[in-house]
Amino acid sequence: MDLELKNKVALVTASSKGLGKAVAFELAREGAKVVICARDKNTLEKTAEEIRNATGTEVLSVVTDLTKAEDIKNLVKDTITKFARIDILFTNAGGPPPGQFMEFNDEDWKNAFELNLLSVVRLCKEVIPYMQRQGGGRIIHSTSISVKQPLENLVLSNSLRAGVIGLSKTLANELGPDNILVNAVCPGATATERLENLVKARVEREGISEEDAKRGWTDAIPLGRLGTPEEFANLVVFLASEKASNITGTAIQVDGGFYKGIL
Questions:
Q1: What is the Cα–Cα distance from 136 to 142, expressed in whole angstroms?
Q2: 14, 61, 19, 21: which is closest to 42 by C-alpha?
């Protein structure tokens, strides 16, 4: 199936590893030009070279701290300078630390807000005017299955990522007339560094084995296994494509059946 992504320009944030890297790779394999960003320059450049060598596509890498407004402005500016347009925006950032409500202070909440919600607001604010001028685009937010089924010991993620869904639905309604489609993808337990860190945190908190901590995730998944970053990326790429031209305002889980709700 031709997804009609050849020569589209995709800005993928937090993309030197994990889900962001997988999304950048899959978009590049479909022929899109990709812009990737992360805070660590060495890891970022290594990923950019991997994508170039594997796909032959153009890759721009920009060192970016998503908690800094000026960095986001520069990221979008560099993208426009290089490619003159942005067809796809994939918003993504590392998750906040695990813990229960009473363990966090105001500073913890502010940090989580800046990383997981305000960064999305700032990215959209910078990118939307370009999409409006060029006649359309795709905005896809990476959130978490926690927006549909809150996860134990993840109060910061449960709270802030739900805000992204509210923003996503609002933008879908406001930007539909501009042919800008806005959706969210909600990963469940996926084999990433983030999950490894959550497993380690549970091991330390509960004094159980790493195997038991991992089983705590997989036992709740009907497919009986963790998802892969590539499986997550496949849905993102479809939503970014011309084949998803009538899909907007949705929040779709990729979780192996973990979410038990009807809607």
A1: 20
A2: 61
Distance CA 209, CA 191 (A): 18
pTM above 0.90, yes or no: yes
Residue 262 lies in a domain: no
Task: Tell me, yes or no, whether 259 lies in a domain.
Answer: no
For residue 249, CA distances in Å to 15, 90, 133, 171 come to 24, 15, 21, 8
Q: 75 and 91: one domain? A: yes
Note whether residue 260 is domain-resident: no
Strand-pair category, 9-12 with 88-91: parallel
Write down the H helix ranges in 114-154.
Answer: 119-134
- Per-10-residue mean pLDDT of the chain, 263 residues long, equals 94 97 98 98 98 98 98 98 98 94 98 98 98 98 96 95 98 98 97 86 85 86 96 98 97 96 88
